[in-house]
Fold:
Amino acid sequence: MIRFRLFPEEVTSTKAKAFHLVMLLFTLLVIKDVAMKLVDSLHYHTRDLSAFLINYQGGFVRRGLGGEIVYRLSALFSCDPKVIIIPFNTACTFLLVALFVYWFRKRHLCWYVLPLEIFLGCAWFIQWPAIMDSTLMLLFILMLYLFNSLHRNALRIVCITIVMLFTLNLHEASVYFCFPVMFLLLWNDNKTTKTGVLFFSLFTATMLVLISKFHGDQSTVDAIHASWGDVFNEEPTRFDFAESLSWSFFDTAQMHIHRNFGSPTYLPSAISFLQLYLKGFYIRPFVLLLIYYVMTNTVFVFRRNDSSLNLQDRKNICYLMTFQFLSLILMFTILSCDWVRVVCYWTLSSYAIFLMVDRKTIDGAFPEWYKRLVWRLDRWLIRLVSPKKGVVAVCLLVVCITPIHFRPTIAFDYSVVGRIMEMICHFLS
Structure:
């Protein structure tokens, strides 16, 4: 029989109990947001789900696989695409949450990071269920599962390659948090031949080139619109997915650099320059460093009495967080301005590897020079800000990120402190 304990055995002091209650209250607020999002999804129009409507009816095109599957199912069952998209994407999101909750309970890890916006809580702050990030992360988890469970070299390589190609055809962003680490794990695994790893890399690179080349044009967009008209048996609403298809690298990079590091034109030039400097080259790196600090220290500082975590686990999560950040550096700078989504890729993928792959395999995947460098930098950060319970607790309360543009006042509203204060203000009013 499962017994519910309001306070774990290790939470004994008054301050620890107060912090524990604050995190429980914040979790309840996140659950409330989930319920409200589910109610709102009932009123979604199909045009709000354009990421799932890009299909192959105008020819092969990037991000078209998911839409093609939805198109075939909608035509088969003669139903509105949202009847398929919303339940499926909601199920994927809840499955992702359930997996991480299960892994944390199995490893006896502190759950304080789970509801944060920089971890599982991010799903409720972005355009869920209108995007497919949960599906992409589940496919990455499937690759890790195949890596762990399949021991025959050929079968393992073929299965992981198929899942990787499927994931890339859903969204090309997956290559940044999936391919580098999978290549590293396979390359340094004794059960996998180097020829098999090269086969995996060749097919992934070929698919990425094809996706980059076949980005569609206006005729492709018109053909996709016409195909959905056949499903609806009427002239369809114009869906807003043209920008998702026809972007070019240089134009997209310029736009994202402006959004990530630029400043509004309506401010005086001196203030604009100051904001550019602070936001682009001071605040954002500081926020990323704070996220790294929280994600690498929380489960160890608030370690449960029955936890099996050791020093090697602490090193492994540092290696993984750093490597996944470097893998996603292009998305943090020139290929995306959706910071919540990219941070989600970063933290969830790092912890998925940490929780699914054994510590010896993770340690053996990285070269010695890399491990020495990362550990030295982490030691420097720890000497600068000692990871004690009080310090990490404050970081958990204030760590935040806004969905796209980083504005400190808005970011505060998304933090644990901001949400609790908002609730108190509503209650008092």
Remarks:
- The chain has one domain: 15-34+50-234+245-428.
- Residues 15-34+50-234+245-428 form one domain.
